[in-house]
Design goal:
Blueprint lengths: L16 H15 L11 H8 L3 H13 L3 E4 L3 E4 L11 H4 L2 H14 L3 H15 L6 E6 L2 H11 L8 E6 H6 L1 H9 L2 E5 L3 H7 L5 E4 L1 E3 L1 H8 L6 E6 L2 H4 L2 H8 L5 E6 L5 H6 L3 E5 L15 E4 L1 E3 L1 H23 L11
Parallel strand pairs: 3-4, 3-5, 5-6, 8-9, 8-10, 10-11
Antiparallel strand pairs: 1-2, 7-12
Length: 339
């Protein structure tokens, strides 16, 4: 994950430095591989390094603490928080199957069967052996189009009887019916860095945040950029604008000239016209219409982290399904999990 230093904060951008810092830290903590328990810089140290007011850094740390991304320890400072997802425990019966699972995974690997496909096959086969227990799942995205793409990418790990519907965060905030849909769902999925916002709107919903990574296609497109290119990196959301430059540099360190701007900037057309390559954040698809033919132009798109899907989502779906089956059996009075 990219480092946050003095060059990360651009005071010429039409976004407050506090918003920039929050976006940078939120992105780094949510999408990076920073181990929980890692100590962050002190408020004064980070403020001095970035050339901003300590009060601004302290406010950002408070926001990240409230979002559950960091924890403040009295007299010690700020630390990366441990993410507790309440996933099914590693009990003895499950542990007894580990060797069999390893054998099956090895055989699938030799046959060229992807892990996600294997999980889907197991889910499908299990549905033939026991009562149906379709889950009602809601995915809360920021933008509708990409949201449907993300659903399709994780759909292989769901059973045929499951339903997965899409809601946007803006729609969730504005529409009572959308909020009720989340409260009535067995599970609400969203992005790790948007969990706090979703939980604020529907605190009683059963929410599971997933980690996302820059997609392979995005990384490949960045890697082959001409090092002499004048790159325009364009964001759609305020809290993402400061992330664009370090995100591009992470996979295109050979490119030195990167101009970051906002999709609604008054000089956006001039910036695009003077660029040799244009990269736009998800949600700013209209930018592609402004780029002249022959100029490399692509979206900085993320994709679900396979490890998050396989190690987090799959076992939790199994736990929810088993609890729902138990709750639907005659004579059972136990409520389904996640309600």
């Amino acid at each position: 994950m990219f480092a946050i230093d003095a060059s990360s904060i651009d005071k010429s951008l039409p976004v407050p430095v506090g918003t920039q810092l929050h976006g940078l830290l939120n992105y780094s903590l949510s999408f990076g591989d920073i181990p929980h328990g890692t100590k962050l810089q002190s408020v004064r140290q980070l403020a001095a390094e970035l050339g901003i007011a300590p009060m601004t850094v302290a406010h950002v740390y408070q926001q990240l603490r409230d979002a559950g991304l960091i924890e403040m320890r009295q007299g010690l400072g700020a630390f990366v928080a441990h993410r507790n997802y309440n996933i099914v425990a590693d009990n003895a019966p499950a542990a007894a199957l580990r060797i069999d699972i390893e054998v099956l995974l090895g055989k699938a690997e030799r046959l060229g069967v992807p892990t996600a496909s294997l999980v889907s096959m197991i889910n499908a086969q299990s549905q033939l052996r026991k009562p149906k227990a379709g889950l009602n799942v809601v995915f809360v995205a920021i933008f509708e189009g990409p949201g449907y793409d993300y659903i399709e990418q994780i759909r292989p790990v769901f059973a045929s009887g499951d339903t997965i519907s899409l809601l946007t965060l803006d729609g969730l905030r504005a529409d009572e019916a959308s909020r009720q849909a989340c409260l009535g769902a067995d599970l609400v999925l969203t992005f790790l860095n948007r969990e706090a916002e979703v939980r604020e709107v529907v605190p009683d919903a059963n929410i599971l945040p997933l980690r996302f990574l820059p997609s392979g296609q995005t990384r490949q497109a960045l890697a082959v950029l001409d090092p002499r290119s004048r790159v325009a990196a364009i964001a759609q959301l305020q809290d993402y604008i400061a992330v664009m430059r370090p995100s591009v540099r992470e996979y295109a360190p050979h490119v030195s000239e990167i101009k970051v701007t906002w999709s609604a900037a008054p000089d956006i057309r001039e910036i695009i016209a003077g660029s040799d390559a244009v990269i736009y954040a998800t949600g700013a698809d209209h930018i592609a219409e402004m780029v002249r033919p022959g100029i490399p132009c692509f979206e900085y798109r993320h994709a679900p982290d396979p490890a998050s899907v396989e190690n987090l989502l799959v076992p939790y779906l199994s736990e929810l399904r088993q609890a729902k089956i138990a709750g639907n059996e005659p004579g059972s009075s136990e409520p389904a999990a996640g309600k």
